[in-house]
Write a structure and sequence with these properties.
The chain is about 30% helix and about 20% strand. By secondary structure, it is an alpha/beta fold. The protein has one domain (about 50-285): Rossmann fold (3-Layer(aba) Sandwich). Strands 3-2-1-4-5-7-6 form a seven-stranded mixed beta sheet, sandwiched between helices.
Length: about 300
């Protein structure tokens, strides 16, 4: 699943899975407006930054039914709208948003009809940004509606009121500490626009239990209270990792968990699949949920 980078604890600077910081990233720019290196204040993602190939494998197989995508589209249908993908990482969502990556049971024509009008991927880490740009370059005509730019969640390189949908998948918005990014969402979204935040639901599922053990400081109930205080509705979506082989499962687990814990849980978990739960949270600009109900998709709220 990326941009993020993936799953982590409280965050400030966007770097996929990041940790607390607090400032707005400024950062020197190279010729052409791109930073020469990671933006100041960005906390490295432990998976996407250091294990991009395993991270790509994770994104390909942790939700093969694309139940999370379906939940996101239900509360923030991006068809014909201007979208910003915050912490786009290597560009996982960019082809889908651009209508160039059909989902299960969907043909190319149907995917194209559901395309956004424009997509901006924001990513602070240069190697991931270049991967995203290379991916977009291979999309053909659909790629013309996508741009990938340097920036952070708390300092988005976008004009005021320029986006209809702001999406952050496993990037920056992990709960307390992300208030500067929430202020940026309010700034860049048009009236009636929708912010959607996707993160691990650590309160349930096999992977959620492993996640909680790896991050004992993570308080799932406190995180949920934080988002409710800020006006976000929530769904918990059941997903299933369905890896092509055992080696793939082990590779992905090992970029998500500390080595000793990964050894332990893998020893007790045979096969190539794994149940997981994902929190999809959303809020309409101006306050209030964006429609839909805060119920579970295949799980509990």
């Amino acid at each position: 699943m990326p941009a993020l980078p993936r799953r982590s604890g409280p965050a400030d600077a966007l770097g996929g899975d990041s940790g607390p910081d607090g400032g707005r990233a400024e950062g020197g720019r190279a010729e052409g407006g791109d930073p020469r290196g990671p933006l100041p204040g960005v906390v490295p993602s432990p998976n996407a930054w250091h294990h991009p190939d395993a991270y790509a494998l994770e994104n390909a197989f942790v939700d093969v039914e694309r139940r999370v995508d379906a939940a996101v589209r239900e509360v923030a249908d991006w068809t014909g709208l201007d979208v910003v993908d915050i912490g786009c990482g290597p560009g996982v969502m960019l082809p889908r948003l651009a209508g160039a990556d059909p989902g299960p049971g969907e043909d190319a024509a149907a995917a194209a009809r559901g395309a956004a009008a424009s997509v901006v991927g924001v990513e602070p880490h240069p190697p991931l940004r270049e991967r995203a740009r290379a991916l977009v370059a291979g999309l053909g005509p659909a790629g013309s509606r996508v741009s990938v730019v340097a920036g952070t969640a708390q300092d988005l390189p976008l004009p005021d009121a320029s986006a209809d949908v702001a999406l952050a998948r496993w990037a920056y918005f992990f709960g307390p500490g992300c208030e500067p990014g929430l202020a940026e969402l309010d700034r860049v979204l048009r009236p009636g626009g929708v912010a959607v935040v996707v993160d691990t639901d650590a309160s349930r599922s096999t992977f959620g239990g492993w996640f909680a053990r790896a991050r004992p400081w993570h308080d799932a109930a406190a995180v949920r209270r934080f988002w409710r205080r800020h006006g976000f509705a929530e769904r918990s979506v059941d997903v299933r990792w369905s890896m092509p082989d055992r080696a793939a499962l082990e590779a992905v687990v090992r970029i998500e968990l500390p080595p000793a814990l990964a050894d332990e849980v893998l020893a007790g978990h045979p096969g190539t699949s794994l149940d997981d739960a994902v929190a999809v949270r959303w809020r309409r600009a101006g306050g209030g949920p964006a429609g839909g109900s805060p119920a579970a998709v295949g799980g509990s709220a």
